[in-house]
What we know:
CATH architecture: Roll
Number of helices: 3
Radius of gyration: 15 Å
Strand order of the largest sheet: 1-4-3-2
Amino acid sequence: MKLKNVLIVVKDIEKSRKFYHDLFGLDLILDNGGNMILTEGLVLQDEKIWKEFLGKEIIPENHSCELYFEEEDLEAFIQKLENLYPQVRYVNRLMTHSWGQKVVRFYDPDGNLIEVGTPM
């Protein structure tokens, strides 16, 4: 058995596809109408479909998981983030952990937590 994908719930699937393409270079592999598979195994699921499957409300910014990306030039990435998405909501701005890794944490447009850090 192997893990194939990670799915996140989004309100506006096209807006989210653009967000992940603009910032992380993820491209569309398959569009199943309300369910998009992007490169690197990220799946975007339309919130309406997800609610129907689960029969429960979606809880944005629930802090129970995060998408983690690595970037050599973190300062350039943060500049790109702020230029393209100036309304971004940070959890923490650029910081350095005690072990020397630099990281930034923020939410995507739907409240999914993202961390970008320098390679360890």
